[in-house]
Amino acid sequence: MSQLENAVLKETLKFREMLPTLMLSHAGKWVLFRDEKVNSAHATETEAFEAGVSTFGSEGGFVVALVAKTRPTPINAAAAFGLARA
């Protein structure tokens, strides 16, 4: 895994860990997340992404995510890899 991929994975895991707390202050917003914190909050994904590129560059290791409760989607390996037959 590249250094950039490692940075994004680290930020993603931290975002997920902080999600319950972020729900209190940023629910329904798209956030630019890097350095283990929200750098800015936006109404749209595009706005958050553009802010990330502007602030950190195209390979800045940031995460753009919607602050919302999520539910896992059950899936099996056959469906994930396109092996399921109808």
Structure explained in plain terms:
The longest helix is centred in the N-terminal third of the chain and has 24 residues, at 3-26. A 3-stranded antiparallel beta sheet has the order 2-1-3. By secondary structure, it is of the alpha+beta class. The chain has helices at 3-26, 45-56, 77-80, and strands spanning 30-34, 37-42, 63-66. The protein has one domain (3-69).
Helicity level: 40-55%
How do the helices and strands follow one another from N- to C-terminus? HEEHEH
The count of strands amounts to 3
Low-confidence stretches: none
Mean pLDDT: 90
Alpha-carbon distance between the termini?
A: 35 Å
What integer value in Å does the Rg equal?
15 Å
Question: Features of this protein?
Answer:
3 helices, alpha+beta, 17% strand, 47% helix, three-stranded antiparallel sheet, globular, 86 residues
Mind sketching the topology for me?
Blueprint: H1 3-26, E1 30-34, E2 37-42, H2 45-56, E3 63-66, H3 77-80
Antiparallel strand pairs: 1-2, 1-3
Structure in a nutshell:
47% of the residues lie in helices and 17% in strands. With 86 residues, the protein is an alpha+beta fold.
